Amino acid sequence: MSKRMFAIIACLAVLLCGCVKEAQPAADASKDNLIKVGFSQVGAESEWRVANTESIKAALSIKNGYELIFDDARQEQENQIRAIRTFIQQNVDYIVFSPKVKTGWNSILQEAKEAQIPVIIIDRNIEVEDEGLYTAHIGSDFLKEGEKAVQWLEKLLEKQGRKDKPVRIVHIQGTIGSSAQIGRTNALEQAIKRNSNWKMVTQECGDFTRAKTYEVMGAILKQTKDIDVVYCENDGEALGAIDAMEEAGLKCNVNGGVIVISFDATKLGLEYCLKGKIALDVECNPLQGPYVNEIIQKLQRGEPIEREKLIDETQFDCFTINKKMIDGRQY
Ligand code: GYE
Q: Is the dihedral of CA 20, 26, 28, 29 positive or negative?
């Protein structure tokens, strides 16, 4: 073959290869480059949770280079374990999950470790035998949130001259065994121990939902209406408790009514705070997606990461809140 002929054939071959490559479906080619993440969400029990899901979905989007496999565990730990096992079988690059409860994760996380898949825990935290079973945790300090609430209450009662008068407290707990419940409950129980005039009327589980708390509070009110404080472990519970109390003819406010304490500081919760029905709403930030993205990007580049990331949070009370503060919020 002449040199000229050879050159022409070589050019044709290059062109042809280029065409063949071009002819591949673009979506498939780009999918190979996406970071595959399996995300097991505990459920959709509250506005907080919905905002949390949206934040993760927005941060781990195709546009940002991710293929996200989402699973809603509908409040069942077994469903979360099953989802995580499926993610391992699908050979995802990362597993992200918000654990329903604190314990019971050792074996499934061992399976993830053996498959060499990094696990990032968001929101609630867990207790494991070996810290190496997960790579990072991004969430809140729930005990600190509870302490902010009880300290604020101590100051308010002191200001109102009720330091030595009996303060009757109804405690509505979140999902039992979740670290959010454990931290917020511990803070109240410690405060009751140090304030001899604080009395626990009853402690019931509202499961972080408005509907369940409405039922539970309705039943409590049939037993007694002699209540000074209702300590709810999230906004949904506070709203359910307020609905039941108002129906039973009680007023919720800091001026002689029932003092309602809440957590999350969602827009709806803060609207109630502005009306004076929630006295204090301690913020819990669900916008964790950007932090998860940041950690994954660092791991991709082999850079060191912060293993425990606690998000800064504030609080809002009925004395200082205004409309502008609510309008400026994302959830
Ligand atoms: O406070 C509540 C939710 O784990 C921090 O779960 C979260 C809690 C949050 O459903 O609204």
A: positive
Question: Hey, whose CA ends up nearest to atom 8 of ligand 1?
Answer: 180
Ligand 1 pocket: which residues have CB below 6 Å? 45-46, 48-49, 123-124, 140, 180, 208, 234, 263-264, 284
Q: Does the domain formed by 142-284 have CATH 3.40.50.2300?
A: yes
3-state secondary structure of 234: coil
Domain 34-139+287-310: which CATH number of 2.60.120.280, 3.30.420.40, 3.40.190.80, 3.40.50.2300: 3.40.50.2300
> Is beta strand 315-317 parallel, antiparallel or unpaired with respect to 119-123?
unpaired
Q: What is the pLDDT of residues 194-240, one digit of tens each?
A: 999 999 999 999 999 999 999 999 999 999 999 999 999 999 999 99
Q: For residue 144, is pLDDT > 50?
A: yes
Atom of ligand 1 nearest to the CA of 142: 5
